[in-house]
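Quick question, first post here. What does this chain look like in 3D?
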Amino acid sequence: MPKITKEQIIEVLKTCYDPEINIDIWTLGLIYNIDIVEDKVNIRMTFTSIMCPYGPMLVEDIKTKLGQDKEIKEVNVEVVFNPPWQPSEELRAMLGV
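> Answer (accepted):
Ran it through. Tokens below.
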């Protein structure tokens, strides 16, 4: 039975974009943890802000895209705000801030 890899999950996450910034959630650093237990994927993530209007849409996008993989039976997304999101220096340069 093929095993789901973290790399496969990351490749899917790179197709989920924050529509406000137009950068994928992996590059933004919104994903804090990926845990794979057999055919279940647990993701811990944050948003760019607590009031992010696109937060629920991003969670649904993750679940929909990962759910297309026949090896994945369950996708759980936990949204946390501790630690708060901080853009990396590289990301700050990309955003021009």
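The helical segments are 6-13, 25-28, 55-67, 89-95.
The CA atoms of residues 3 and 38 lie 8 Å apart.
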